[in-house]
Design brief:
It comes from Nonomuraea insulae. InterPro entries: MFS, MFS_trans_sf. It is a multi-pass membrane protein. The protein has a domain of about 220 residues: MFS general substrate transporter like domains (Growth Hormone, Chain: A), CATH 1.20.1250. The protein contains twelve helices and no strands.
Amino acid sequence: MISSQTHPQERRDFRRLWSGSTVSQLGSAVGMVALPVVAVTVIHASAFQVALLAALTAVTTALLAFPLGTYVEFRRKRPIMIATDLVRFAGIASVPVAAALGALTFVHLCVIAVVNASCQIAFNAAAQSHLKALVSAPHLIEANSRLESTRWLSISVGPSAAGALIGLLSAVGSLVIDAVSFLFSALAIRTLRTPEPPAPVREAHVSRREELFAGWRFAWRHPALRPMLVSWVTFAGASSMAAAVSAVYYLRDLGFEPWQYGLIMGVPSLGGFAGARLAPRLVARLGAVRGLWWASMLRGPWYFLIPAALPGTLGLVMCGFGFGMVLLFAGAANSP
């Protein structure tokens, strides 16, 4: 276990990374609820515009995941993590500033969505790679499981708190919490004391273009990674598009209050937390590939409960339960 069987400096640095990541994720979870509410209630975006906002995030993630991952691979990780945190702080903070000046537009929100998605890809790639420099190999699965379970726990707490914060501060004001969380994350990373190892050296004969698409080609040609890639792109893209459209569905079609929307987006994420904590047992029992296959197959069907819901308490329960089961298996699939 990381808490008792590792070097003291390794434990301290992992806890710094863990705490910074937790606060950042809590803030992001608040923003996950607040930003669609801003789009729907402040600038009165149409369902098409909200869908477009989500599509931009999904397309950015799909197109840049491998190229940015390759770019990050050959550079120092901590400066990238700090820089992406600061960029996200500036981007999110610009929304309440623009709203206060009466200058907030749909295009502004689209730019923020693309910038945030890009920074998140780069940050996650750097953090995942840098974790290997902070935690010894025997403890990596446990470290990943803790980070993933904390991510799901923060997603369950953050959106639930976002409903209350929206009532207290407004949706725009809640984004200030999200922005400040990125500053805390950058500070936590800045305090890491374990020396960062040198970045890998790029091979001189490999062109930049070939390098950028090497990850895509390797994954596509690998018999085990190709179906995982297709599964990830399909599920992540569909989920990203559904996330923002669901704000219109919940707030307008089903008539839920913002605090109820926060509950739907938050409490079911406890399923993701449980799935992440169960992932090591799933891997031990079935193996990494079979465990991932089963978790991936079982995460989708539960989505059908959500469009079948009706206004009222029963509909709230149906949406929450369906979303919770989706996230249970998604959490298990993301952790191996």
